[in-house]
Design a protein that fits this description.
- The protein is of the alpha+beta class.
- It has one domain.
- Helices cover 35% and strands 35% of the residues.
- It is built from 2 helices and 5 strands.
- The longest helix is centred in the middle third of the chain and has 16 residues.
């Protein structure tokens, strides 16, 4: 879950032109909405849907691990916490 939060923080910081330390993220899962995140930047709140989370993970994997990952390889799941599984294909 920490790396998903890091991915969303870095992605949001890049998009908003702020340092990652100014981004706060809370992940959530809802039966009706699926995986979402609420992101706070400079006192403003924004909701991200699953597609936004997958995009952030794709970019994070390339940026941090130099690994090209596509959305079709990423599966989000929840047990005690939200986690991502990345398939090798």
């Amino acid at each position: 879950m920490d790396e998903i939060i890091n991915a969303v923080c870095l992605n949001t910081a890049d998009r908003k032109g702020v340092p990652p330390s100014e981004v706060e993220v809370q992940l959530a899962w809802d039966e009706n909405l699926g995986f979402t995140a609420e992101v706070w930047v400079q006192g403003r709140s924004q909701y991200l849907v699953e597609a936004n989370l997958l995009e952030a993970i794709e970019q994070y994997m390339f940026r941090e691990y130099n690994r090209r990952v596509f959305r079709s390889q990423i599966t989000l799941d929840v047990e005690d916490e939200i986690w991502a599984d990345i398939a090798d294909h």
